[in-house]
Amino acid sequence: MASNVEAPERWYLALLGFAEHFRTSSPPKIRLCVHCLQAVFQFKPPQRIEARTHLQLGSVLYHHTKNSELARSHLEKAWFISQQVPQFEDVKFEAASILSELFCQQNLVDSAKPLLRKAIQISQQTPYWHCRLLFQLAQLHTLEKDLVSACDLLGVGAEYARVVGSEYTRALFLLSKGMLLLMERKLGEVHPLLTLCGTIVENWQGNPIQKESLRVFFLVLQVTHYLDAGQVKSVKPCLKQLQQCIQTISTLHDDEILPSNPADLFHWLPKEHMCVLVYLVTVMHSMQAGYLEKAQKYTDKALMQLEKLKMLDCSPILSTFQVILLEHIIMCRLVTGHKATALQEISQVCQLCQQSPRLFTNHAAQLHTLLGLYCISVNCMDNAEAQFTTALRLTTHQELWTYIVTNLASVYIREGNRHQELYSLLERINPDHNFPVRRFLRETLKMSNAEDLNRLTACSLVLLGHIFYVLGNHRESNNMVVPAMQLASKIPDMSVQLWSSALLKDLNKALGNTMDAHEAAQMHQNFSQQLLQDHIAACSLPEHNLISWTDGPPPVQIQAQNGPTTSLASLL
Questions:
Q1: CA–CA separation, 348 vs 323, rounded Å?
Q2: 88 within domain boundaries
Q3: Is the confidence at residue 1, as pLDDT, over 60?
Q4: What is the SS3 assignment for 299?
Q5: Which UniProt keywords are listed (predicted)?
Q6: All residues at 6 or more sequence positions from 345 whose CB lies less than 8 Å from its CB, including other chains
Q7: 3-state helix, strand, coil in the chain (%, to 5)
Q8: Which DSSP string corresponds to 340-380?
Q9: 516 with 321: CB under 8 angstroms?
Q10: Residue 8, burial from CB neighbour count under 10 angstroms (0-12, 13-18, 19+)
Q11: pLDDT for the residue 509
């Protein structure tokens, strides 16, 4: 709150000192701080002091109270008065920045946009504020899902940063634009942009932490780009670089020396947040590759780190990281046959979404999809259908839409009497018939093998094995089912293990291998028992009632129910 006024009056310095003392007390005494600042107006101060005090009051009220109307009034006065005072950029643009934040919080986005545009227009001689306001308006457009406008602004920012000689901030603008292009799936534009970014990042010589943070941003985009394409083997060198990079950052001390170029005064993320993000992309990789125990290990580490950070930091991005980690580990639990734990973690996601409407808006479709997958795992097919239908209503994301529809198709196949719905669903997946209708499992196997997609390989092997068994080709079936079982045990994938052991039992019986048939039957019995016990445990939990929730925000209270109401027959 320090003031830069020339020859300030003693009364002003005294009131400012008291206000700052009360603001920084533990706990803060906000009411007394506000009283001290309001007392400044009793002295009929000059415009500079008046504008700065309105900004200070608006900022304190916005950040520490729920009195948003009074905060808005003070910030509007600060913005209006400061525009009449020459060389008063910090107060002017900080007022515009906080006021636009407040407008967004009040869902007055149409008031925030022209305010930011005006501030951007008049801040071109102040590099730090011009860049910061461009980032802020780009973020606002991103939250509104207007990625085209956001990309345009980030492009303007990158060119401005180049003109004012800030290659560091130019890279930040370009990497942010690359992130949005990836979200839009504009892959043709992503490749040249990432190539340019890689050159800028490697050539930039400056603060070591800033340089490494740029490299982390760049490598995170590269890794997610590979993972989006399912290239889990090709991504390994990039992922290793990223993990080495975050280790380097954790050994560097924050340098207190400020950059000489004011346009360089930006940080992408605190290094503690970067650390969690690297854990997160590692979990994504482990899960896609089918190393589920490794995914669980890194999830546990990341969630522990997040719990520590959330004690001191209320940044919304931490809750977003937490939800994405839980979404991944829930899918892992369902694959490894831990449905009860998965259900409790789904309930955790619900609780996090209750605390943040924006988080719920962004993750509602994923949450209903996870509930649909859980419903399939406990054989509640009607509920699974209702959950997937709800998820489809809530998503506009093409890949998620396709994933939901294919799972809904599997529900229709399991129910056995839904042929018409199944055919119309398949028509929706491929209305233009723009890829071959005849799928070749051997091709799937070849592709998944080439990129180490272990779960896809295991599923393809066991399905091929089943087909050969039905065709009476027992030797070829055995050649498929044995490696499927080995791979499923390594993942571990409980459903594929159950399926493989059932096939091995029948195969060995058909081939006259009595001992092997008995061993396979025993394995199948063990897997069945594990699944049955977990099934009973999951359906007995009060959280099981979530399967009936298909509308509105997540239910706050979940009532207990009397034992499981579903059968495991179709799984066995």
A1: 9
A2: yes
A3: no
A4: helix
A5: Cell cycle, Cell division, Chromosome partition, Mitosis, Nucleus
A6: 326, 329, 330, 333
A7: 75, 0, 25
A8: HHHHHHHHHHHHHHHH-HHHHHHHHHHHHHHHHHHHHHTT-
A9: no
A10: middle
A11: 92
Among 332, 279, 270, 331, CA closest to 304: 279
Helix or strand (DSSP H, E) at 246: helix 236-251
Question: 177: which 2 tokens?
Answer: 């634009």
CA distance 544 to 553: 17
Q: Which residues contact 495 (CB under 8 A, 6 or more apart)?
A: 335, 337, 571
Given pLDDT bands bounded at 50, 70 and 90, which one contains residue 325?
Answer: very high
Residue 290, domain member (yes or no): no
pLDDT digits (tens, 9 = 90+) for 199-224: 999 999 888 888 999 999 999 999 99
CATH code: domain of residue 68: 1.25.40.10
pLDDT given at position 229: 84
Angle of the 271-289 helix axis to the 292-312 helix axis, nearest 10: 160
Per the structure, the count of domains in the chain is 1
Counts for the chain of helices (H) and strands (E), in that order: 25, 0
In a domain, 319, yes or no: no
Q: What is the pLDDT of residues 496-539, one digit of tens each?
A: 999 999 999 999 999 889 999 999 999 999 999 999 999 999 99
Q: Provide the whole-model pTM.
A: 0.86
Mean per-residue pLDDT of the chain: 89
Per DSSP, the three-state class of 267 is coil
In angstroms, the CA 272 to CA 275 distance is 5
Give a yes or no: residue 221 inside a domain.
no
| Side chain identity at residue 271, one-letter code | K
